[in-house]
Amino acid sequence: MGDSTGHKHKHLEFTLAAVSELSSSSSVSSSSTPVIARFSADDGVAALRFHQGSEFIDGFNVDLGTSQLFKLGPLQSLCVSESADTNKEKSYSRGVSIRFRNEEESRDFHSAFEQWQMESKGTHLPNGDISVSKSKFDNKIEPSSAKMYFHYYGQLLHQQNMLQDYVRTGTYYAAVIENRVDFTGRVVVDVGAGSGILSLFAAQAGAKHVYAVEASEMADYARKLITGNPTLGQRITVIKGKVEEAELPEKADILISEPMGTLLVNERMLESYIIARDQFLVPNGKMFPSTGRIHMAPFSDEYLFVEIANKALFWQQQNYYGVDLTPLYGSAFQGYFSQPVVDAFDPRLLVCPPMCHVLNFNEIKEEDLYEIDIPLKFTASVGTRVHGLACWFDVLFNGSTVQRWLTTAPGAPTTHWYQIRCVLSQPIYVMAGQEITGQLHMIAHNAQSYTIYLTLSEQGGIIQTSSCKLDLKEPYYRMSQPQPYTMAQDQQPHQLLQAEDIPPIHTEDLDLEELELLQQPSEPLGAQ
């Protein structure tokens, strides 16, 4: 069913159980004649009208351009609208309470209300159609990426993986419970609530009410889990939808969320966390977490470099069923090095003290996360070959009673985030005390991730520079593979590597002992 103004929706009319106006005692039910809610657009103005039989119900008309719809329960909603009093030349609010016959009709009504409201705020085109205004999320994220993202987090097995990360879950629990003073009697919004575990933590800490906002199908599981814990669940409302599109009946004193991805920013949920802050948080409200830090340091790992380089050796075959594969070897070699490596590594592989880049969630703007530029400057602690940049992150829960950090650092208890390493296809050689400079430049893309541009330069006698481009969306997950690191890792290239794959090392810069070490024959990887 459609109309002449370009609205083409499945539901234009809804049969209700009852409707009443809050400012008066008037109420209309469907006991005898059904009460109908009808969306229409007369003279280009989108409105919601109620009628019983063939008669419109006076005083219940709603202008969709100046109204909001709140879900009070499975079958109960409240529509609040702004109306103009022409005599007093000021606006006043009024509310219409709507009761539905079942939950399915309630969901369909909310969906239609949202769509009609978006179109009422859209732009009329010359042909009479209406250009629909998309939410911030829809404008910047590719639909196929969003579909896969919400499908992934809508499955219990992936939620279980995160819940069983006891470093993550235990730190959140401690940060909340140890800071009860921040939660007791307060309104809390859980951004991207998932299974609802953080909402339940907030309720345990004495929150007055918690709004758990979750866009995936996990919202239904969260509602089931919360209902199964009634003493806590009576103070939790699950709202199914994107935080960019959600509307709440009151402001929040505290935001709680787990918006961190690999390298802190992957999946771009931090932007949703910031949007929630701007939309829902009262001035000077608290954010759990409130600060994030990206830590970085150059590393040396010959085993990893050889492992990645040898993946491309398949493409060096000159007679693969009669086909010469070598024309694609160079592209395959660079392709493998365009994948950030996700694993847990030995902190002794770091060749410099780390530096960090701070993100203050209380102050940062959403747009600041679209492009992140980090100048790099390190001092080498040892003389070795630098194979790339290692990164990890931590976040701060700045409670009034206890401050807690959740860290993913190498050497600390491993989390499901692990650490990440950007590997250079052309390593650089440094001597102890030499300065290493460079840049880590990250640009957000519409697949909910970032393109990474890394440059490292050694500022010694012979300036060496190496760069790489990586896609954070497509990492190499190496966590399950054995890592036989010893106290002093042998830095010999694997025998499968061709000589031209290893960049030349200027022997005039090396002493006799280093020269002899480089000339020794390498052992097979298995022997090491």
UniProtKB/TrEMBL annotation:
InterPro entries registered for this protein in UniProt: Arg_MeTrfase (IPR025799), CARM1-like_PH (IPR057622), PRMT_dom (IPR055135), SAM-dependent_MTases_sf (IPR029063)
Domain (Protein arginine N-methyltransferase): residue spans on this chain: 293-446
Compartments it resides in: Cytoplasm; Nucleus
Glycosyltransferase found in the keyword field: no
SUPFAM superfamilies hit by this protein: S-adenosyl-L-methionine-dependent methyltransferases (SSF53335)
GO molecular function: histone H3R2 methyltransferase activity; protein heterodimerization activity; protein homodimerization activity; protein-arginine omega-N asymmetric methyltransferase activity; protein-arginine omega-N monomethyltransferase activity
EC primary class: transferase
Keyword list, A-Z: Chromatin regulator, Cytoplasm, Methyltransferase, Nucleus, S-adenosyl-L-methionine, Transcription, Transcription regulation, Transferase
One of the protein's GO biological processes: methylation
GO-annotated cellular components: cytoplasm; nucleus
The keyword Zinc-finger belongs to this UniProt entry's keyword annotation: no
EC number: 2.1.1.319
Domain Probable histone-arginine methyltransferase CARM1-like N-terminal PH stretches: 12-117
Top-rank lineage group of the source organism: Eukaryota
Protein name: type I protein arginine methyltransferase
